[in-house]
Amino acid sequence: MIASHTGEPTHPAWLLNLRATPAACIQIGRRTTPVRAREAASDERARLWQRVVAADGAYAVYERRTRRRIPVVVLDPVRPAGRA
Predict the structure, then answer these.
(1) Strand partners, 28
(2) E-strand spans in the chain?
(3) Tens digit of pLDDT for each residue in 6-59?
(4) Residue 83: band (very low, low, confident or very high) from pLDDT cuts 50, 70, 90
């Protein structure tokens, strides 16, 4: 997930919520999956950011609009307790 906030000077509220409570659920279609959010750091962020900009050039515009570094959030699936 990209916390671009369309290049606004502040982070979007959802990012602040995930920083405070990284445990979340995502829904794709009818399927819900528990996840843990984390911000990609250094090399991982750079690699993911390149892919995002290649897929949608608007993110490069957002990056130019702001002085903040736009966070890239990774949602790692969480296995339910007792499952291997």
Answers:
(1) 31
(2) 23-28, 31-39, 73-77
(3) 999 999 999 999 999 999 999 999 999 999 999 999 999 999 999 999 999 999
(4) low
Contact 46, 52 (CB under 8 A): no
Length of the chain: 84
- Residues 71 and 39 sit within 8 Å (Cβ to Cβ): yes
Please state whether beta strands 23-28 and 31-39 pair in parallel, antiparallel, or not at all (unpaired). antiparallel
Tokens of 31: 């399927």
- Closest listed residue to residue 34, CA positions, set 81, 66, 65, 79: 79
Separation between Cα atoms, residue 46 and residue 44, nearest integer Å = 5
